[in-house]
UniProtKB/TrEMBL annotation:
UniProt protein name: Thioredoxin family protein
Organism listed in the record: Hoeflea ulvae
Secretion signal span: 1-19
Keyword Signal: yes
CDD domains (UniProt xref): SoxW
């Protein structure tokens, strides 16, 4: 009986680990099967996300980035985090040093690496959250409603997605105050397991 229980536990653990592990693509970046594959036309991606009832978030990563690996293996593998993002956001992955073509909101055609430079990204991962409507005459970086450089703990990461989803950037509650309030609520409910 103990042996059967152990084998059942081992099988579930193996399936869980397999389901939560992110594949690494030919470009050396970790992949989630729910990331969107697009032509990297930012205006088009904003419109497509809106048609799907979602918001666009762009994630810049690079080969060998330990923080990107942490984001995939710890944060994006957490069902609570992944389920919220999948339900509310269209995620497009960019390679900080990639050569794929990108069309910025201002119409300029760049490579991923020149877009990263133009938008001022120097750290990976960097997440850029875009507005629901395509603005005129702005670059993606100028139009972004929020940018998150780095892989933080679960609640900071998830709360940023929630804050953007709730359009917190339009209100008076700065993200840091929003995050502190949510942490206090989680603590009071006995749900705080990280941070």
């Amino acid at each position: 009986m103990i042996r059967r229980a152990f084998l059942a536990f081992a099988a579930v653990a193996a399936l869980t680990a397999q389901a939560w592990s992110a594949e690494i693509g030919e470009d050396g970046l970790h992949k989630q099967d729910w990331f969107a594959l697009t032509f990297r036309d930012v205006a088009e991606d904003i419109e497509t996300a809106k048609e799907e009832g979602k918001r666009l978030v762009m994630i810049f990563e690079q080969r060998g980035c330990i923080y990107c690996a942490k984001m995939h293996e710890t944060l994006l593998s957490d069902p609570e985090v992944a389920d919220f993002i999948k339900a509310n956001f269209k995620v497009v992955q960019y390679n900080m040093f990639g050569d794929e073509e990108v069309t910025d909101l201002d119409g300029e055609v760049l490579t991923e690496k020149t877009a990263a430079r133009k938008w001022g990204f120097v750290f990976t991962p960097t997440l850029m959250f875009l507005p629901e409507e395509v603005p005129e005459g702005k670059t993606a970086a100028e139009a972004a409603v929020a940018t998150m450089p780095g892989a933080f703990g679960k609640w900071t990461f998830l709360n940023m997605f929630k804050w953007v989803s709730e359009k917190g950037y339009e209100g008076d509650e700065h993200f840091q105050k929003y995050h502190a309030r949510i942490i206090n609520e989680l603590r009071a409910a006995g749900r705080l397991d990280a941070e």
